[in-house]
Write a sequence for this structure.
């Protein structure tokens, strides 16, 4: 497991020194931790201590990521989950965890390990046992899955691919602005792992949704999401309801996969914050 970078260790020290309850934000593929900056301001103003650790080896800026895409290559779901496990292990207080896309999957994995006191999974990537496989999800993943050689590579999205997978529910101008501001290459391995999770008994893409220490969980779904259509989120919700803890579902009308970063991000952030406030002390 890669070492925790110094800037993340500094953030952990800052969070611990605050005495507040941490909120750990986890991004998904094709984004960086900076995609959570506005969310962090909202949660900070509400009295929490936000922290947005990157995946192992994440660059600090979009420009750096585009210049050195090779740093993303080879990451697996298990490796990244263990990385966040290590980060949470250094926090003085058990955090709330909020994740988007593959970050939403990771948030559920961490909750299943009993590491989160409240979890919000937004348009979360599917895990072992989630059966629906809508055509739009296959198309959104096709830039990676269409070529087995991409398994060990870092793959960028073209604007057209980003428009379909992320920004289908916003205007063309906004889609272009989001692409320029946020889109970075992503490792291919997690998508291949998710694609075969239901056929691999040893898959790392596995969630313990029955752990009694999972804590309250909210699953948020964008109505028009192509990458994680509502059928996937609804099925994950069905599985998570087997848990003895609180499990809730929220559908955000008219929103695509970019719902955490586009012009409607605040509605989603406030939905997540309201759930966290019900269960997590400040």
């Amino acid at each position: 497991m890669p070492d925790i970078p110094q800037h993340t260790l500094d953030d952990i020290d800052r969070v611990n020194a605050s005495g507040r309850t941490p909120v750990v934000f986890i991004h998904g593929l094709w984004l960086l931790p900076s995609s959570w900056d506005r969310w962090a301001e909202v949660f900070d103003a509400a009295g929490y201590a936000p922290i947005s650790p990157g995946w192992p080896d994440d660059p600090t800026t979009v420009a750096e990521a585009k210049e050195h895409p090779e740093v993303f290559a080879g990451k697996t779901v298990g490796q990244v989950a263990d990385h966040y496990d290590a980060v949470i292990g250094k926090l003085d207080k058990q955090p709330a965890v909020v994740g988007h896309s593959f970050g939403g999957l990771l948030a559920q994995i961490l909750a299943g390990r009993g590491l989160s006191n409240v979890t919000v999974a937004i348009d979360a990537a599917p895990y072992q046992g989630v059966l629906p496989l809508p055509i739009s999800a296959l198309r959104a993943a096709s830039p990676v899955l269409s070529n087995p050689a991409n398994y060990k590579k870092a793959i960028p999205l073209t604007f057209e691919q980003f428009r379909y997978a992320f920004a289908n529910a916003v205007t063309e101008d906004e889609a272009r602005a989001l692409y320029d501001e946020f889109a970075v290459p992503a490792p291919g391995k997690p998508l291949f792992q998710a694609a075969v999770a239901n056929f691999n008994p040893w898959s790392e893409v596995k969630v313990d949704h029955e752990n009694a220490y999972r804590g309250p969980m909210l699953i948020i779904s964008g109505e028009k999401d192509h990458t994680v259509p509502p059928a996937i989120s609804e099925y994950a919700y069905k599985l998570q309801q087997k848990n003895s803890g609180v499990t809730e579902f929220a559908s955000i009308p008219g929103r695509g996969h970019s719902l955490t970063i586009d012009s409607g991000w605040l509605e989603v952030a406030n939905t997540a914050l309201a759930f966290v406030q019900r269960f997590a002390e400040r």
